Amino acid sequence: MPVAENSDVKTYFPWLTKKHHNYRGTIQLLRKGRNWYIAIPIQVSSALNQEVNVQAYTPIGVDLGLRHLAVLSEPISGKRQFFSGKEVGYIRRHFRSLRRSLGKKKAQRAIERIGQKETRWMKDYNRKLAKNMIDFALQFDRPLIKMEALDDIRQTAKSMKKADRTIHSWAFYQLKQFIKERAVKHNIPVVDINPFKTSQTCFVCRHVEKDNRHRGAFQCKNCGRKTHADLNAANNIATSTSLAE
Q1: For position 141, which CATH number holds?
Q2: How far is CA 165 from CA 124, 153, 222, in A?
Q3: Residue 245 resides in a domain
Q4: In whole angstroms, how far apart are CA 183 and each of 68, 126, 145, 154, 198?
Q5: Per the database record, which ranges form the Cas12f1-like TNB domain (predicted)?
Q6: 95 and 40 belong to one structural domain
Q7: Does the pLDDT of residue 96 top 50, yes or no?
Q8: Phi, psi for 153 (deg, rounded to 5)
Q9: Is the domain of 179 the same as that of 233?
Q10: If pLDDT is split at 50, 70 and 90, which confidence band does 45 have?
């Protein structure tokens, strides 16, 4: 979409008129280097999710985060897979260090090129990650992928600087889109789950307490069960019946 100073730009977004797609919230115009992005929040009616008979599928929970970009779990078989965020964190820090070393005014074009290179790298990484996640799901009979709503992922990163939160939120949104696109090719349904207290609830005894989780570790204050915090959340997401609104 072209952007020019002191002029009106009219465009048409056909997907806004699709069934079950409702506009809500505030439209944001974002700039990354020389590129401009428009973020339009859309509420997708849960009627789409209700068309899926979840009882007929094998649920796979997906917990998205920063330390581990994704943790997948199929609770019945106990199979799980962790995707570390170390490589992404290292690359992000590398590009940020390059931008800082160049300064601001004299090397603006160089900074923009670095930003574009980082964006391409992240896009390629997300595509590969989405493929690996779908490959995990394909080992099960009639898999159903359940993921937490994007809003909770933003809350996970709330302690980060504003610019970093924006980047991570955009990267997670892109990852979810790639997962859904690839899932369609394999006829794998994907539903968004309300992640309310999934990180604080014990998957075994269902006891809910904030102190159950400490960083990457989960130890239930009621039954004493110990496990990885993200794995516990992924199990709760897999068995949750609370669809995101």
Answers
A1: 3.30.420
A2: 20, 10, 34
A3: no
A4: 21, 14, 9, 23, 24
A5: 172-237
A6: no
A7: yes
A8: -65, -40
A9: yes
A10: very low
Distance (Å, whole) CA 103 – CA 98:
9
Q: Whole-structure pTM over 0.70, yes or no?
A: yes
Residue pair 21/107 in contact (Cβ under 8 Å)? The answer is no
Per the CB < 8 A criterion, the answer to whether 169 and 155 are in contact is: no
| Overall domain count for the chain | 2
Q: How far apart are CA 104 and CA 110, in angstroms?
A: 10
- Domain of residue 212 covers 54-239
Mean pLDDT of 85-103: 83
pLDDT tens for 124-133 read 999 999 999 9
pLDDT at 5 over 90: no
pLDDT at 205: 97
Tokens encoding 168: 């991570």
Taking alpha carbons only, the member of 199, 136, 146 closest to residue 176 is 146
Same-domain status, 65 and 182: yes
Higher pLDDT, 243 or 177: 177
